[in-house]
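Today's session is about reading a structure prediction critically. Students often jump straight to the picture, but the first step is always the sequence itself: look for stretches that repeat, for charged clusters, for runs of hydrophobic residues. Only then move on to the predicted structure, which in these notes is written as discrete structure tokens rather than atom positions. Here is the chain we will use throughout the hour.
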Amino acid sequence: MTKSAWSRILFAAMLSLVLILAACGGGDSKDEGEKKDDKDTSDKTEEKSTEGQFSYEDFDQTVANTGDPSGTGTLKVGYTSDTPFEGTLNWAFYQGSPDATMIGYFDEAVFSMDADFQYTQDGLITYEVDEDAKTVTFTLAHDAKWHDGTPVTIEDYVASYEVIGHPDYDGVRGSDEGFTLIEGYEEYQAGEAESISGIEVKDDKTAVFTYKELAPSLTAGGFWAYAFPKHYYEGVEVKDMAASDQTRKNPIGIGPYKVKSITSGEAIVLEKFEDYWRGEPGMDGIDIKVIPSSSIADAVEKGDVDVALSFPTDQYPDVSEMEGVNWLANIDGAYTYIGFKLGEWDADKNEVNYKPEEMKMGDKELRRAMWHAMDNDAVGNKFYHGLRWKATSLITPYHENWHTEVEVPEYDPEKAKQILADAGYEDVDGDGFVEDPDGEKLEIKFASMSGGDTAEPLANYYIQSWKEIGLNVVKSNGRLIEFNTFYDMVGKDDPEIDIYQGAWGVGSDVDPSGLYGRKASFNYPRYATEENDDLLKKGNSTDAFDIEYRKDIYNQWQELMVEEMPVIPTLYRAYVIPVNERVKNWSEEYGFNEDTLLYRVGVDE
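Below is the predicted structure for this chain, in token form.
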């Protein structure tokens, strides 16, 4: 599997469920679905085009051009975005998917992963679990080097935990049970200990982690997936690492390509790393540049880029017959949602302060009415031609064995109006908009991201849908908000946001506590109840090693989230990706396949 598909799982896996911040508009694993035959893609495209709707299941997942790469040539990658990438280029510190995409081309995971999203023994580091002793032994199974030539040691893996758990670390990781279950981790994080007592380095290749208890999420993305170049940051205080030159200007990794130059927010030039541990990389280098959504299709057609990442699915019908391109697709581990601000983040306690009684959107009946007002089937068909479709549960079909089709409020504007009326929301002054139950003006500030041709009409569609049931919803700051600013505002609980349209990329483990746990900083709705706490704890307990027990717990959790509605899932998604026919061995399959790893990708001259 290529870096693209592998990192799609792993750059999210490190936060258990998620976590990448995704735009609305992290193990190597095998194809989750039925293996497609080698039918001509153009024939399938033509058949679907006549219907005006598409399905990811009708696409191939691997290019037809396979075989040994030449070792020369440069792959031209276009990352579709209307805003610059932030440039925090280290796994421990990044937040958004653009940065994660960039990092994934020069720094790879130390673990591999199978089709069921379980860590395997095919990566740089292997592991052995001792259930009786509650220990995991991590072993550096191969000799590898950092891009500056320094050998990788097991201490580099341990350093990830020491940095993320450090009291001065101000990033978003370290709150899930892959960290907190380690003995002594919480004491270290609180500044009460100088080291993590549950981590013991035996030698340069071996470390033993002792856990308070073992949880099923550990082997499904719970182990942190990346090494940290401890030597490279020597002399840099943890609080300064995210902004340091080592992170932003001259990052290093262990992947098959190393950073040659960075144009801040715009481009990264990579060159072959001759000492890559798996073998010689298949090309001289990779050039990655950010390309606006309005220009990406033209860049593909002209051959300016070989691969277009984050290609806008709404554009696909217009360019599906482009010559010289293989169109690949797969289900995406992501969903879009409408989030409601129900509290705020308590930085002193490092947890959610859930206070719905004080928040404008605290009334469940108001949220329920807004759900009934949205026709997400129509949104998927109209804006995405079937490549996105109505969402129901917060556990997506990407986790096929865990996803449940729970009953959700159906599109019914008349019912929505009745719910509002019954809850005391009435149009007192005759302006067409309801007042709140106290008779006060109700204006709901809605934040949505800019980017692509669909962003504005989609936001306007939701606003109009809510207007039709009498709700006065306006755009926060009067306009759409660019990606980085949007998540900065949402994360800081900006008072200009009552509701927002966001998106999450889910990780390998089904555990949703990284998004909806009380201690999760990514819990942007700021939702926390005892019942939610209890279910999330049970879902990753030792009892949950019983798969049927765990499924039952997460079924209950999915139903709870529909009842409570801290967020409304709107769309599941597939992604499409155009790949120039000269590219060799590129794949979007989920599953470990060494033949299509990044170092095996090549280009025909």
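Discussion point for the tutorial: Residues 109-246 form a domain with the Dipeptide-binding Protein; domain 1 fold (CATH 3.90.76.10).
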